[in-house]
## 1
Amino acid sequence: MVLMDRCRGLASGAFARELVQKQVAKLVQLQAPVASGEGSEPLHQMRVAMRRLRTTLIQFESALQLPAAVNDQRLAKWVRRLGLARDLDVLRERLEDGFLPQLPAAELKALRPVLRQLRRERQLAHGHVVEVLQSRSYLEGLAQLQRWLKEPAFTSLGEQPISQWVLEWQGPAVSGLFLHPGWQISKDSVQKNPAETEQLHELRRQLKQVRYLLENLAALQGAATEPWISRFKQGQELLGEWNDLQVLQSAIHDQVPGRFEDTLPQLEWLLVQHQRHCWLQWRELVDELLPQRQRRRLRLALLAEPLPAGPRSWLGAGLRHALAWLG
């Protein structure tokens, strides 16, 4: 409650500055371990920090006066360049840690070319990551962000109390989330029309963005949005796993001659089972989130005002629960 009260006393620009400072500090801390290739986790954390920084700057754009070197186009480029190496890490780890221990010797032998190719591509991708981290564009952008954090500049909107603008800072991404066509895609449909896989990938990105938007404001909204953040994270992870399995299957197809089911029958069976399980979990989540009553509950959660602790606080909470039930 003390943290919530302090945050609600901040202006929008000052609140956003604290979020930016947190992500910039992570980028600075992770630069050395990522550049030296110290495992996959530092790269993962840096990619997340960059994505969160980008989301925050987009979310609070109208409250901040940022230097010219800090712009969405440049941030998006950094995220993409780090993304290739991270995606290769995910594929390799999923194959080596998840599937290889369950395969017979013959299939392990057949997969050696795949593993060699993934390692070669990962080495090349690491070189691109190092180029980004040592580039003038990245170093200049990071330096300007650090200078701005010392002497931040805000718009007139950024000088106003954030407590008066929470709903607006949640952004149009939240209100338009359930209009995305990816929610309506069935398994039969995506199998007949592979182009719909891209729609699911886009929905995954939107779920991640909405989750970051809400997490940025969590200190202001208390527990009201916590269940939704958790559900959106679950959906993002399920769609991510679905996509990873498809990409992995395609990568193996490209490296292993002959029919997949003949050369790698056990792996083919495992991939199919994992995809089926992932899809069933995703559709269960869709059935939970998409009904009108649930969408109304989300709107009520976004509108909810955190109440101070005290003997009357149960009344406001009870009223909100009743409205949610009626919705």
Note: Residues 1-160 form a domain with the CHAD domain fold (CATH 1.40.20.10).
## 2
Amino acid sequence: MELWFSEMHTDNVKLGFRIRREIEHVRSPYQDIHIFETYDYGKLLVIDGTVQLTERDEFVYHEMIVHPPMLTHPDPKRILIIGGGDGGSAREVLKHDPDEVHVVEIDEEVVRLSRKHLPFVARSYDDPRVHIHIEDGIEFAKREKNFDVIIIDSTDPVGPAEKLFSGEFYRYLRNTLAPGGIISQQCGTPVYHPEEVCNVHALLSREFRYVRLYFAYIPTYPSGMWAFSIASDEPIRIRRKMDFPTRYFNEEIYSSSMVLPNFVKEKCHQE
């Protein structure tokens, strides 16, 4: 008997993985979490029925949410990651040699399961510069200040992550950033949910002088075409040379990923 996991992308489209075995299943106070072993994509983390990462292609997402904002800042030393409990974003941030990295994850089960089963991302937690805070990201942002870069590595805007896609949250982030600070956030796919992409861009544009959308191609995310936003009160351009290894991101991709297809320009009213 074959075991499959399928994520519904729309009512009529889904992506399926043939599963070798279910490694662990936990229902936390916040969400339903599965870790599977697949045939083609290695280990698979699923939260509330949606793919969060696979061992085979997680590097694309984590490199693209981290390196554009980190290379936009001239000297990023104090970093905040909201969400990101699997540790993948922290792993990429550490390549920039920061002084401290704070990961704020509301669900301690995500951290526990990642450390237990997903060492390829969670090994970042072994670095003493990485500090884990199990609490609400908004409450942390209200209380703490002076971060050079804030990375919002959340699940989709439903359930516990919904409030991380609000104008009120972005106003808190303005006060949490140090002068010249930068934020990045994943904001979905323009193929199936253009309203989500455009809404994030519009709300950030109310709070920050410079906001850019950019894209990466992630095979296991809905449609494969995934959007991110980067925002700052300083012009968005690369300010440092890369001196670390990556598998997807490079300096050419920094610029080319911000070139928008016409259908996205039209949907989001971009020039």
Note: The chain has two domains: 3-54, 58-268.
## 3
Amino acid sequence: MRTQNKTRDIVLTALFTALITAGAYIRIPVPVCPFTLQFLFTTLAGVFLGKNKGTAATAIYVVLGLAGLPVFTGGGGIGYVLQPTFGYLIGFIAGSYITGHIVHSGSLTTARLLAGCFAGLGIVYALGMVYYRMISVLWLKDPIGIGKLFLYCFVLAVPGDILLCILSAVLGKRLLPVLSLKEA
């Protein structure tokens, strides 16, 4: 039984890593920070796999990109850490963890699912925007103003991600009991 669970965990972690990769290539053009479906799949990784395996799936995705595989929206490679949007990738890892932690820390309620998804969203945007500002000031020597940063990297992108949070919560509520993936 343990071998079956371990195999299932490995397959699901790999599946979510692949889904996050696919989500990077589904883009909706928005100035400065591109809107992709990466957030949907990193959030669902936390919802379905829990904090540890969901974080592992997301971290594997980031490591693969840093190793040079073109899995990020703008390619891959270690130099990607100097891209202003790299902070969102760090945020995806932390967001998967927070989402999984909240969702799997009690009974499966819609409120808990929404709280987990929105907490993950907050972490992703906080880390993404701070990193974007830091790189634009320290590395690019072309600081983006706080107003523009807030407009382009939050206001224009967050409405779609709010809908993705709701979708993630709905999918979690319907599928977690059926798939028996809720951590004890």
Note: The first helix runs from residue 2 to 24.
## 4
Amino acid sequence: MNRREVLSAPDLGRTVDRLASQVLEGVGDPRQLILVGIPTRGVALAEVLAARLQAMAGHPIDQGSLDPTFHRDDLERVGTRMVQPTDLPASLEGRQVVLVDDVIFTGRTVRAALEALQTWGRPRRVYLLAMVDRGHREVPIQPDFCGRVIPTSRHEVIQVALQGIDAEEGVFLLRPD
């Protein structure tokens, strides 16, 4: 695949800072906030955001993960992967939840995550944060906080690389040769 950088490491850092500021403005009381990452890259992105939010808010931000695999309606199309355990550090009841994913595409993963979230409690409000919106929605779901909109073809792939996982940072567009 042909790989083209869309966001450099410094650009990605500035985008994460902007998203963290927008989240703080949007939720009001950051003590009611809980970040919930969607595996795999959404979990790592939620960890990065939690650290930035902690620095801005001056106190720790609750952060966890939620695997929506068993709530998907398209498993035969996308296939299965090893399911990761859901790890929520606190009750969701009455909290402001920010679902975090690296890339939003068809919206089916987020739809499944919203369904899975309901089994863990009733949040006061659920927001969606995506680093990249690449279009091609199949369900009417849009991010509340979005790092970048990058229109793609269905054959292209967006890769969000994070230092803790990939030993590099940036956002890349992958095109078939």
Note: DSSP finds five helices and eight strands in the chain.
